[in-house]
């Protein structure tokens, strides 16, 4: 493999390694605007059909003058009160990152909107990087010191990284993605290209 092909393989491998960790899913709460639902269990039903993992985000889209988003405890969620909120968002839209495992509770504290069903709880789970059904990748072959030329070492490293990135790509959930993540991905790719040229 010539040096140009090695650089290309390294860039593709680095991009494939970075992509699965780029972002989580972005959940638009209720798959519509955050407002008083037609039925009291609308948001509960929506939440039960979703899978929330660490790294995902919730997006609450609402009119700031008429609604808000308050993160509360379970007790306050059940009683539709917001005496000791964890977070309060008065201006929409709001994006809330799900940064740890557990149950998050959100209500609207305007008038009696919470009692009318404008509340949602989401159970966030830890995600696994590699599905348990996949076998571990074998370790790289040991090469005698005399055969350690940069092209050989690079191909061994990229072969193993490519194998592991395919496993990671298999475990990635599909997502809508975001412009920021795409831009950061391209910046990362450009850095890899520049770094590979500096190695010459």
Label this structure with key terms:
200 residues, 8 strands, transmembrane helix, signal, Phytocyanin_dom
Describe this structure in words.
Helix content is 36%, strand content 16%. Strands 2-8-7-4-5 form a five-stranded mixed β-sheet. The chain has a three-stranded mixed β-sheet with strand order 1-3-6, with no helix packed on it. It folds into two domains: 3-23 and 145-198, no CATH class; 26-125, Cupredoxins -  blue copper proteins (Immunoglobulin-like, Sandwich). With 200 residues, the chain is α/β, with parallel strands linked by helices. Residues 15-21, 129-135 and 139-183 have low confidence and may be disordered. It is built from five helices and eight strands. The chain is elongated, with a radius of gyration of 23 Å. The chain starts with a helix and ends with a helix. The chain has helices at residues 3-18, 42-48, 74-79, 150-171, 179-198; strands spanning 26-28, 52-53, 57-60, 69-72, 87-89, 94-97, 102-107, 119-125. Helix 1 runs parallel beside helix 4 and helix 1 (3-18) packs antiparallel against helix 5 (179-198).
